[in-house]
Design a protein that fits this description.
GO terms for molecular function: heat shock protein binding. Keywords: Cytoplasm, Repeat, TPR repeat. By secondary structure, the chain is mainly α. Among the domains are: about 70 residues, Alpha Horseshoe (Serine Threonine Protein Phosphatase 5, Tetratricopeptide repeat); about 55 residues. Helices cover about 70% and strands about 0% of the residues. The chain contains eleven helices and no strands. Helix 4 runs parallel beside helix 6 and helix 6 runs parallel beside helix 8. The protein starts with a helix and ends in a 25-residue tail after the last helix.
Length: about 240
């Protein structure tokens, strides 16, 4: 075919070849241009949608409760730890729904502070404020004063506009860890939100009282985390690392 075309072109007169080249150039420039970035973006979006659908289908087939009949306490401890570690892996990969599922499996085998706390963190990522709140409550029931649970419960309060409750939890954290940067940052945000939500007259009165208090004061001027025995660290060196 190529040879035949070449032979035909050899018999074309020069002016015909020039005209043919001109027509080809016009055709090329008038064709819609192929936007590579746009097409790649479409492919990425399609892939993400299919991945989400496949992941949800996969999760729906996995049991959230494990049968522990006949298992010894040591075997339960091992199984619960394994499921929790799977949850940590999913969390670190950004698969928060999968993380919640594995933490739930761990809790079904052997409830622990670590699993409840980690599930609360995954639920915060999913903006499931009520579920996260319930898990924080469970942690604090098992271990009153747990720093991570107080921080996470404060976050749920903040997003549910329960600002005063959030401040109380954050102050409890700062009483124990005065230099906790996350608690200080969140407290600053909550206090700003509270101030913005107050009527102007109340804000002015509060401002005057604060000034008076500051003047009076100026005259006088001169976790460790605990849980079940199978809890482990996530590698974060700070006292308030995200996962156990």
């Amino acid at each position: 075919m190529i040879k035949y075309t070449f032979m035909k072109l050899k018999h074309f007169q020069p002016w015909k070849i020039i005209c043919l080249q001109f027509v080809v150039q016009i055709a090329i420039f008038t064709l819609p241009r192929f936007d590579v970035e746009k097409e790649c973006s479409k492919i990425d979006e399609d892939y993400k949608e299919k991945t989400v659908v496949n992941n949800k289908a996969h999760l729906s087939k996995i049991e959230t409760r494990l049968d522990t009949a006949g298992l010894t306490e040591k075997e339960k401890d091992f199984l619960a730890t394994r499921e929790k570690e799977k949850g940590n892996e999913a969390f670190n990969s950004g698969d928060y729904e999968e993380a919640v599922m594995y933490y739930t499996r761990s809790i079904s085998v052997l409830p622990s502070v670590a699993a409840y706390n980690n599930r609360a963190q995954a639920e915060l990522k999913l903006q499931s404020w009520n579920s996260a709140f319930r898990d924080c409550e469970k942690v604090l029931e098992l271990e009153p004063g747990n720093i991570k649970a107080l921080l996470r419960r404060a976050t749920t309060y903040k997003h549910q506009n329960k600002l005063q409750e959030a401040i109380e939890d954050l102050n409890k954290v700062l009483d124990v860890e005065p230099h906790n940067e996350l608690a200080k940052k969140t407290l600053s945000e909550v206090e700003r939100d509270l101030k913005n939500s107050e009527p102007a007259s109340k804000t002015q009165v509060k401002g005057k009282r604060m000034v008076i208090q500051e003047v009076e004061n100026s005259e006088d001027e001169g976790g460790k985390d605990h849980g079940r025995k199978h809890e482990d660290g996530s590698g974060d060196k700070s006292k308030t690392s995200f996962l156990f």
